[in-house]
Amino acid sequence: MTTTEETRIIPLLPQVDPAGDEQQQKLADETWRKSIPAQVFLNYFFAINYHIQEQDDVLGGLQNLPFFRSHGAELSDADVTALTKLLHTSWSTEYALRATAELGDDNFLRNALHWTFPQAYHAILSGLQAFLYTTGVRSSNGQLIRREVGRLVVKNAYPRPVSFYAAGSYGDFSIHRLPLAGYKAGLHIASQEIDAQAQIGQMLRTTRKMKAQWTRAQVQANPNTAIRSQKTGRPLDKWTAAHWQQITWRLGYTTIFDLLGRLRISQTSREIERYVEADIDFRLFHASLLNIVSYLNGIHETYVAKALGLERYRQLVAELPAHLQASFVADRLRTRVEPVLAPTPPTAPAIAAEATPYRMAA
Questions:
Q1: In the chain, is it the N or the C terminus that has fewer CB atoms within a 10 Å radius of its CB?
Q2: Is 145:46 a contact under the CB 8 Å cutoff?
Q3: pTM for the complete prediction?
Q4: Directed axis angle between helix 142-154 and helix 106-134, to 10°?
Q5: Burial of 241: CB neighbours in 10 Å, binned 0-12, 13-18, 19+
């Protein structure tokens, strides 16, 4: 009797359960789908930071703006006290934002969005209020602040990197001072200026669209302002382009400050949870926010220092509370304020001609 020896065949590739593999792919696809809104939001703020650093040079700086050169104010002691309070609020909020970014690991930074989003917004808002105070606008009304800063952006009170804005009625928006904003924005982090401007342009359009829709809802909900049907006398549900044009004046201009206003997300809302649960680079998100905050606060601090006088501003910084002593405030005085107001002070370094895209701002 003859026996046949069986040959054991060992597969070159491991056996994969098709059902399990398909399930893993579905989970990965679902995670990515849920992460898209957060990724787009990260792209927007990274693009703003990228654009600022690409365009931030001496030629586009404050010192070359006629508005800045003519800026001044007569300030009483009470005014100086009010300005000091606004600046302290701005700096303390920025201090807290920086502490989160520096001390937290990736998981901590993910959950910290609950408070870092509003911190970034309010750090800039208080500095903006200090600047507006020196122009005669001394109000905490959000609508008034938004309208006034929009006018200042259009009047070239801000350096080139943040002087962009959107105007026009719903369905006919126009983007200004962003020549590449018409290109289609991608779902990737900006790697060149065309990507950054396309993403900023998209954010300007979507933000202005949201504002237009919100304004329409407010107008139509008010019996005294609602646009009505000539036949029935009831508020119109469907609007034509002509109807949208009637409320364009209420929108003002859409600027970087409106974009930053989108950070005001309630920690109890579903919106923030979408970001917390997303699979994105949270460290890069915080770095981008911090750089934008520092850049805009540096602009407002320079305006305030010009209105106060450099020596008086130096004294204000020297008398800061302990937690702000020898901090980013003094560093910005040395690197941002003094080079503009006193171009050749003994302690001021030369202004860098180039900047790395991912540097942490002073």
A1: N
A2: no
A3: 0.84
A4: 80
A5: exposed
